[in-house]
Specification:
By secondary structure, the chain is mainly α. It is built from five helices and two strands. The protein has helices spanning 2-28, 35-48, 50-56, 72-107, 119-145; strands spanning 110-111, 116-117. It has a two-stranded antiparallel sheet with strand order 1-2. A hairpin with a 4-residue loop joins strand 1 (110-111) and strand 2. Helix 1 (2-28) runs antiparallel to helix 2 (35-48) and helix 3 runs parallel beside helix 5. The protein is elongated. The two termini are 25 Å apart.
């Protein structure tokens, strides 16, 4: 839940800075420097933080039309395959984004224009995929422990 609230806070920050920029541009004819850059950074937080929450709540997009045609045992097998693939893919992305984060910190990579460090955004991408990987692992274990195949 705190992931969704954090993403919401970044949404309000992005909205606030954009509203202030619009008002400043219209009234004072001066734009707030770096508004687009800060908004771009907020978008990383907005999109990445809710990923694990959505997966944990099982609210991700899925196509159940085909799934409804199979028996409960086949459905359980399909779910297991989904969780194994999801765990593998998010685990791989987690490792890659961790190395990207380390490189960003090592060279202190900055966003052009406002000299904003990009390591917080790269950390959030890594952190989000770490949590997502853990969520897929938990869902896989839950699915393996499920005896009735639902």
């Amino acid at each position: 839940m705190w992931l969704m609230l954090s993403a919401g806070a970044f949404l309000f920050f992005a909205m606030g800075i954009n509203i202030c920029d619009i008002i400043s541009t219209k009234i004072f004819k001066v734009s707030i420097p770096g508004t687009i850059d800060f908004t771009e950074e907020c978008m990383v937080f907005l999109t990445m933080l809710p990923l694990a929450f959505v997966a944990l709540e099982k609210k991700h997009i899925k196509f159940s039309i085909l799934e409804e045609q199979f028996s409960p045992k086949v459905k359980k097998l399909m779910k297991l395959i989904q969780y194994v693939l999801s765990l593998g893919i998010s685990g791989f992305v987690c490792v890659r984004t961790f190395y990207n984060f380390l490189q960003s910190v090592k060279v202190m990579e900055m966003k052009r224009g406002v000299d904003l460090p990009i390591w917080p955004a790269t950390f959030i991408v890594f952190f989000s995929f770490l949590i997502l990987t853990l969520v897929w692992g938990v869902l896989l274990v839950e699915s393996l422990e499920d005896k009735d195949g639902t």
